[in-house]
Amino acid sequence: xxxxxxxxxxxxxxxxxxxxxxxxxxxxxxxxxxxxxxxxxxxxxxxxxxxxxxxxxxxxxxxxxxxxxxxxxxxxxxxxxxxxxxxxxxxxxxxxxxxxxxxxxxxxxxxxxxxxxxxxxxxxxxxxxxxxxxxxxxxxxxxxxxxxxxxxxxxxxxxxxxxxxxxxxxxxxxxxxxxxxxxxxxxxxxxxxxxxxxxxxxxxxxxxxxxxxxxxxxxxxxxxxxxxxxxxxxxxxxxxxxxxxxxxxxxxxxxxxxxxxxxxxxxxxxxxxxxxxxxxxxxxxxxxxxxxxxxxxxxxxxxxxxxxxxxxxxxxxxxxxxxxxxxxxxxxxxxxxxxxxxxxxxxxxxxxxxxxxxxxxxxxxxxxxxxxxxxxxxxxxxxxxxxxxxxxxxxx
Amino acid sequence: xxxxxxxxxxxxxxxxxxxxxxxxxxxxxxxxxxxxxxxxxxxxxxxxxxxxxxxxxxxxxxxxxxxxxxxxxxxxxxxxxxxxxxxxxxxxxxxxxxxxxxxxxxxxxxxxxxxxxxxxxxxxxxxxxxxxxxxxxxxxxxxxxxxxxxxxxxxxxxxxxxxxxxxxxxxxxxxxxxxxxxxxxxxxxxxxxxxxxxxxxxxxxxxxxxxxxxxxxxxxxxxxxxxxxxxxxxxxxxxxxxxxxxxxxxxxxxxxxxxxxxxxxxxxxxxxxxxxxxxxxxxxxxxxxxxxxxxx
Lengths: 396, 296
Description:
- Chain A is mainly α.
- Chain A is built from 16 helices and 2 strands.
- Chain A has a single domain (about 75-380), classed as ABC transporter involved in vitamin B12 uptake, BtuC, CATH 1.10.3470.
- Chain A has a two-stranded antiparallel sheet with strand order 1-2.
- The model of chain A is unreliable at about 1-35 (pLDDT under 50).
- Chain B has helices at about 1-30, 40-55, 60-85, 90-115, 125-130, 140-160, 165-175, 175-180, 185-210, 220-235, 240-260, 270-285; strands at about 120, 130-135, 135-140, 215.
- Chain B is globular, with a radius of gyration of 19 Å.
């Protein structure tokens, strides 16, 4: 296991950032390794990963896993839904780096997801490239666009930053809808050609492999985010989140750190778009490029608990699973027999998820992770006062 | 030349609709620092209220339709402020997030109740007729939108300058705590601002349907418009009504001119929308606080 101090991209970025200013105070080393609960947490994490990794091999009948005739745990339908959960969990975790850990509210995250999905789709399907260059060019495109647009958007702060990122993402949506040179397929989207894919990822038997691919994506993203947020760069992100001015007074130029956060978060979204395309097999503007997707990602992170890694993952898993599950329930024949007062709201996942989101904001602002830590605190020490609600700094 | 006049009037009419939306957003932000994502669904609800009155109470005429749209927007906005924004006072991020949740929930409810397909509003014949100006036929709807925009600009200016609430709102935008320390109930001003913004939004939703969308309403129309309204507010400067008016006019004209003169060839159909974003990027690079934004 590498420790966060021993170099790599984050330290390089950190050095670049305060090269031109007065010497920055050295930060205390991250205390993660020393914390007493870390072994328990590592074991729990391994167990959870192992359970999810074994699901494709388990043909157990679990009632209510999904509504419908097939309740088998490793049926293609279940694996597809879970694979989608993993993809969005990774993307949400990437967004959490930007929003939860650095305090930057972006409304343009979908742009990088779209670059991933459409980038791979166009290079494979329209240009007929081999897989490896297609992957590399797509990732590089996502990173490059993030660096350029991030540098522009970060000139504004607070609401202006949010609006500019929204506007850039909207341009991406318009370009895709416009179908320039017949690249994107316009409104109807572009189905991926499987000609250049390895056989393991093609055909009916591929469901299981794609599921594992999505799980590996999530694990890699988690590991990267865990390392980076625990590093000295991650600590500067937290300092910027709490008070950008104070971080600057301490000698950190905030801009390179914010840009690094933006770039990492966008790169993860691009990779997520790639895995999404492999999983779903087609890219459409509404599914991978519309602002609705950004809003969903934001809702996932806040539902789970912004600024916590597992919270963002849990929020995304719950969100995507509920969305798919509710859609399937609404399609059940018996559902139509309900009176309209119940049927109309219950048939709309976006209504139920929106309402759930409002309830969380009003009554559980820390999300699922906040609830869990409150419960844990109450169980471990009954005398301890309940934790104060997260403080919010004013938006400029 | 005559085509140019027709396009200009159309651009000004579009700008008027943007102003109706942006003025509410800007007022709310100026006083309360809340960026209201639910504004889009206020628009849509206004249009649906107009549709309902036109379909079920035709005796009320088009005046009734307009009043229903504005009243629905105002009512929903006021309830939103009382139930969702007020409990979250002092938590600006949560206030933004709760309006996002409300938008999701209400759009879902509209899709469940009315279907995701468009509904057609019955409008009087004179509204869809055209008037000849300088040899060019101009839809009457353009004049209605333009008139509504100017009327709301005038009314808002009067309201902010001449009424007691207007004074409280302007003072509150300057220094909320000081106003409160003087014993004035700023909370009620918050509700009033939301209601006024909601009324303008409801009106804008109806006008957008009637003038620019072939009298059709659908559950997501507000969210499409909201993005442009956000751009207008940021270009104009958050919190500035005059800035919103200038930016709305500019954005409306740019969008219409570019869309018309670029044609609809491959890769060009969305150029009008793209150019608006470019204007935003340029304005922010030159003046990060917008055209008439207050300094921090």
